[in-house]
């Protein structure tokens, strides 16, 4: 495989640990699958916006998805509680393997950016809160394209802005749909197999498939 010139990181679940948010949403709605349903709705309707040439920012879709989740589960919580729960996404901790992995990649000279479905304002707050800002050359969002991952244009936007060809970049993500999108766009990909995450069986396999970032880091620094 070709050594990538650019590493593109997804943010939510890939770098940041959503377990505290999951626990809080499940507790507030008194349902063990409330968070999973909310997150699925959020991803589903971000894609609905994209394929219907519409756009709402990810936070707005997240709020609508919470309303849908309450309706689906026959639950009801105050708007103030909804806002409290959704605001948690701005101050999530990094997974334990993230800082050691990023440190080693930075020391090895890798150029690294983020590419997230969240707005630029939110990813900036997230990275500052998690203490990860200094590892990245740029914090990118799909906001400029108004098309959500895994639309090909989102990856092309990042490549063009970074000045690299598709095969010279690698997406690192914990979502099978994101990995699929990147591979279809011609990028290399590394899947972090976080708990509950799986690859799409009908898609091309990524170059790396590991349970944490650190083994991927070791392989990349050996290239």
Automatic annotation (TrEMBL):
Domain of life: Bacteria
Alphabetized Pfam families for the sequence: Hydrolase
Gene3D superfamilies documented for this protein: HAD superfamily/HAD-like, Putative phosphatase, domain 2
Record keywords: Hydrolase
Annotated InterPro entries: 2-HAD, HAD-like_sf, HAD-SF_hydro_IA, HAD_sf, PGP-like_dom2, S-2-haloacid_dehalogenase
Sequence similarity: Belongs to the HAD-like hydrolase superfamily. S-2-haloalkanoic acid dehalogenase family.
NCBIfam families listed in its UniProt record: HAD-SF-IA-v2, HAD_type_II
The name this protein goes by in its record: Haloacid dehalogenase type II
């Amino acid at each position: 495989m070709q050594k990538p010139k650019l590493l593109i990181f997804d943010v939510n679940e890939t770098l940041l640990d959503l377990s505290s948010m999951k626990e809080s949403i499940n507790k507030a709605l008194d349902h063990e699958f409330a968070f999973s349903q909310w997150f699925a709705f959020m991803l589903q309707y971000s894609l609905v916006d994209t394929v219907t040439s519409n756009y709402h920012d990810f936070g707005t879709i997240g709020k609508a998805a919470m309303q849908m989740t309450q309706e689906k589960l026959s639950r009801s919580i105050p708007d103030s509680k909804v806002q409290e729960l959704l605001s948690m996404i701005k101050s999530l901790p990094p997974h334990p393997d993230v800082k050691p992995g990023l440190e080693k990649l930075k020391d090895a000279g890798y150029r690294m950016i983020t590419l997230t479905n969240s707005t630029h304002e939110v990813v900036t707050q997230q990275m500052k809160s998690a203490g990860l800002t200094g590892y990245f050359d740029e914090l990118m969002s799909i906001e400029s394209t108004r098309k959500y991952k895994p639309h090909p244009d989102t990856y092309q936007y990042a490549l063009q802005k970074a000045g690299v060809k598709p095969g010279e970049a690698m997406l690192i993500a914990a979502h099978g749909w994101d990995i699929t999108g990147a591979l279809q766009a011609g990028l290399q990909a590394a899947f972090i197999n976080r708990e509950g995450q799986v690859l799409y069986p009908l898609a091309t396999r990524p170059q790396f498939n590991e349970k944490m970032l650190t083994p991927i880091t070791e392989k990349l620094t050996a290239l």
